[in-house]
Every structure is written in C-alpha cells, then in structure tokens.
Amino acid sequence: MIRKTKEDDFEQLVYLDANSGHIFYEKKPEWKKGISEWFRGMFDNINNDFYVYEEDGKIVGAIGLDKDFPIHNSCGIIFLAVLKEEHRKGIGKKLVQFIENKAKENGNERIFLYTGDDNTSAQGFYLKLGYEKINEFPGYYSWGQTAFLYGKKLKKEKKKKKN
C-alpha cells in the first residue's frame, strides 16, 4: 500500500535510507550518522511530498516529490529508497509510477531527478522506466561528485469520447 507520510514515519524513513544499500553509504558508511539532519530538511520543506510503501505495517520503500522544480510545468523526484532486502520486487517501480501519476494530477508535463555518476544501478533503473539522461554536472555534490540529470515527459491521459 502506498500512502502519504506522517510525522510519525520520520524515524522509519531515516532507517530505510540507511538500510537501502545505496552506494553512497556503502562507500562512506560514516555519513549514515548525518541522515536524520539531511532528511529533516527535505521532509519539512512544504514544497516536497513524501509517500511510503508499506507491507504489513512496515515501511519498506519511500519516494519524495519536489513540487517546485525550477523548470516550468515540471517536478522532481528528490528521494527514492527501498530496503536492501526488498530490492528487485517491483517496489521502486510502483513508487515511481505512483509519483508520476501524482505529478500528472498536479499538472506537470515533465519529471526530473539527479543521481550520482557512480550509481549505475539507479541509472539503469530509471532508463528502464523511460527516463533519459539529459546532462552532467561535474562537482554538483558538495563532496565533488558529478551528478547526472535524468528526465521524462509525462504522457497526458486521453479522455474517453462520449457517444
């Protein structure tokens, strides 16, 4: 089940990110200590919406939508995490499809996201979902890593003709 987050979900989201198997934390495990502070800034931003994927009352995945992406009629995925032991079960795909539908409901025509140049699994994941690599930004992240920008045009729903 996918639902909008509540304040009570915050600690589970921090745990989720720390245990998602993200290459970022695998390379720098000491940075897990800063997840709560980093995530709090995004979580409290009124321009962001977060949704969780729950199974049996346990949060196993989450996604964040930036409704104020700086391109006209566009939004951005700012967070996607699935517990490492839940990978390859379609949870990430369901979350992305859910957020794309939310974006369309909000009148967005395009959706964007950034990912690190070393995160090849995320790059392949998004390519399979129809995203295209648009640009590279050397030194984008504070630690000097290059970011890749991916984007996708959102198809408008066709209205059914009335007879």
Give a nutshell description of this structure:
With 163 residues, this protein is α+β, with helices and mostly antiparallel strands. It is 29% helix and 30% strand.
Description:
The protein has 163 residues and is of the alpha+beta class. The chain has helices at 10-18, 23-27, 35-44, 91-105, 120-128; strands at residues 2-4, 48-55, 58-66, 74-82, 110-116, 132-137, 147-153. The chain has a seven-stranded mixed beta sheet with strand order 1-2-3-4-5-7-6, sandwiched between helices. Strand 3 (58-66) and strand 4 (74-82) form a beta hairpin.
- SSE ordering: EHHHEEEHEHEE
Proportion of strand residues? 25-35%
Fraction of helical residues: 25-40%
On the 0 to 100 scale, the average pLDDT is 91
**Can you tell me the residue ranges where pLDDT is under 50 for at least 5 consecutive residues?**
none
Helix segment tally: 5
SS-derived structural category:
alpha+beta
Measured between the Cα atoms of the first and last residue, the distance is 36 Å
Principal-axes shape call = globular
Can you tag this structure with a few keywords?
7 strands, 163 residues, 30% strand
Per-chain topology:
Blueprint: E1 2-4, H1 10-18, H2 23-27, H3 35-44, E2 48-55, E3 58-66, E4 74-82, H4 91-105, E5 110-116, H5 120-128, E6 132-137, E7 147-153
Parallel strand pairs: 4-5
Antiparallel strand pairs: 1-2, 2-3, 3-4, 5-7, 6-7
Helix pairs in contact: 1-3
